Amino acid sequence: MPENASPAGYVALIHGLGLSVPPPRRLFATDERYSVREEGRWTLMTPRHVPATTLEGHLTFALRYEGVDLGLLKAVFKAVGPEAIAAIVRGTPTGIYARRLWFLYEWLTQEPLDLPNAERGNYVDAIDPAMQLTIASTNSRRHRVRNNLPGTPGFCPLVYRSEKVASFLGSDLKTRAWEAVARVPADVLLRAAAFLLLKDSRASYAIEGEHPPADRVQRWGRAIGEAGENPLSVAELLRLQRVVIGDARFVRLGLRDEHGFVGEHARGSGEPIPDHISARPDDLPELMEALIAFANGPAEELDPIVAAALLAFGFVYIHPFADGNGRIHRYLIHHVLSRRGFHPPGVVFPISTAILDRITDYRGVLESYSTRLLPHIDWTAAPDNNVEVHNRTADFYRYFDATPHVEFLFECVQKTIEVDLPAESTYLQRYDAFCRGVQAMVDMPSATLDLLFRFLEQNGGALSKRAREGEFEALSAAEVAEIEAIYRDVFRESR
Q1: 143 marked ligand binding residue
Q2: Does the annotation list 329 as a binding residue?
Q3: Is 432 annotated as a binding residue?
Q4: Pairing, β 387-389 against β 379-381
Q5: Binding residue per annotation — 327?
Q6: pLDDT digits (tens, 9 = 90+) for 406-422
Q7: With 90 as the cut, is the pLDDT of residue 493 above it?
């Protein structure tokens, strides 16, 4: 913490109550200066913002200036017990922040406080829609609070309305996606879609450091092409795992029955070096049920890209399977976008390709939560060099700040719309123009014509000596020169 600053809000509650929970991405404190400023991870507020040094004071400060952190609030509620929250409500029964705390306590714990229903006070939002993304609200008459939380008590990541998120939400990427597709001739679109689908499948394996045979890539590509056709369920996820694994002789299919982590093993000793620790196996049935309920419920009311990010990254943090999690995680993005009609049927934007192009950023997004989570998991190395988790961790996977994940996915989708699809369609149209030009001067089978094109493409537009003396020795020097000129003319502009 910066010198001469005093912790406020969530960070003060974490330290004051001795909580072991992932801290917020931004931490708040107050100091002696009279202007709000940012310093590293800290937001420093002014003396007039100093909260009362009480549970109520710091909770009110947090809700007012930091937004809602469900995982942290639930840990606070467990630590202080129901009577402490009930006392806050009794002290200010019509207070905005008291009623929000009351509602959040009962929503998160599913346990009622010893309080009568609220009879006075205007309805207030559970979370501030100007600060965090919400869905259409339903009134909780007991608390006189509008429940606008974008999830369920079992699974509810939250997203801050950052400048980048707000900008993307206002850009209407869905309309731009349909317009981009409409600009592509129908015959070209079919070929471009087929290529991009295969490219996405190959990229999804490459992200995992795998280079499987063509039949596995094509099989997974077909699965991606069918994304959104079936409602999401645990059974559907298990079907996808069987598709993505293929040969399951050495992989246990289904939900894990052992602990798991993402990372490496130490050389020599083989001890685990985790970058991320997955949900405990005992918690998987409940967590997966909650994830599916979110996908088929509140997610339908969110922006498609926001919903896809929350679902996909929530899944990969839970890591329910022994293998195949990463590819299914990216499949879930396609599932949501397709089911919500983000793009026309038969067209799949190559999200995995865009991720692979930004693999360092992708890992950074995953680590934006994992690095804050890892210190709060009590684990030891198991005899088989796996991990063994000793504390309760289920809530860590229900609630997390998904803002970086949403921003990243927006950027990836934007790239597929504005760069990848137009580039591939332009490439195919130029390829067609090249073929027409060559066919006008010499009759050549399509396979031979394609081989000729590949030779030129690999050699910067010039036919190599080996090709001229080998496969294309029947071409005259003048014909070769003219073909090279056609290629240069068609691909004059960089694609």
Answers
A1: no
A2: yes
A3: no
A4: antiparallel
A5: yes
A6: 999 999 999 999 999 99
A7: no
Mean local confidence (pLDDT), 280-309? 97
In angstroms, what CA-CA distances link 98 with 67, 85, 399, 413, 485? 14, 8, 22, 40, 76
What are the φ/ψ torsions at residue 429 (nearest 5 degrees)? Answer: -65, -35
Contacts 24+ apart (CB under 8 A), 141-144: 141/117, 142/103, 142/106, 142/117, 142/118, 143/99, 143/100, 143/102, 143/103, 143/106, 143/117, 143/118, 144/99, 144/118, 144/120
Catalytic residue among 259, 319, 334, 335: 319
Contact 327, 355 (CB under 8 A): no
d(CA 408, CA 428): 29
Q: State residue 52 phi and psi, 5-degree precision.
A: -65, 140
Both tokens assigned to 47: 């003396």
Smallest CA-to-CA distance from 159 within 306, 331, 260 is with 306
Range 62-89 burial, b when 16+ CB lie within 10 A, else e: bbbbbbbbbbbbbbbbeebebeebbebb
To the query of whether residue 334 is one of the catalytic residues in this protein, the response is no
Q: How far is CA 212 from CA 204, 237, 325, in A?
A: 11, 21, 16
The single-letter code of the amino acid at 63 is L
Cα-only R_g, the chain: 28
What is the length of the chain?
495
Q: How far apart are CA 330 and CA 311, in angstroms?
A: 10
Tokens of 149: 């939380």
Phi then psi for residue 360, to 5 deg, are: -65, -40
Asked if residues 267 and 299 have their Cβ atoms less than 8 Å apart, the reply is no
Q: Is 328 annotated as a binding residue?
A: yes
Q: What share of the chain is helix, strand, coil (3-state, %, to 5)?
A: 55, 10, 35
What value, to the nearest 5°, has the Cα angle with vertex 342 and ends 339 and 347?
Answer: 90
The vertex-176 CA angle with 172 and 182, nearest 5°, equals 150
In the beta sheet, which residues pair with residue 388? Answer: 380
Could you tell me the pTM of the whole model?
A: 0.93
- Find the mean pLDDT for residues 451-480: 92
Query: Measured between alpha carbons, how far is residue 415 from residues 158, 253, 358 in Å?
Result: 24, 34, 11
- 324 annotated as ligand-binding: yes
Q: Positive or negative CA dihedral for 232, 233, 235, 240? A: positive
Burial environment of residue 470 by CB neighbours within 10 A (0 to 12, 13 to 18, 19 or more):
exposed
pLDDT of residue 495: 44
Question: In b/e form, how buried is each residue of 357-386, taking b as 16+ CB within 10 angstroms?
Answer: eeeeebeebbebbbebbbebbebebeeeee
- How far is 246 from 103, CA to CA, in rounded Å? 47
Across the chain, what does the average pLDDT equal? 94
Work out the pLDDT band at 247, boundaries 50, 70, 90: confident
Element counts in the chain: helices (H) and strands (E)? 21, 11
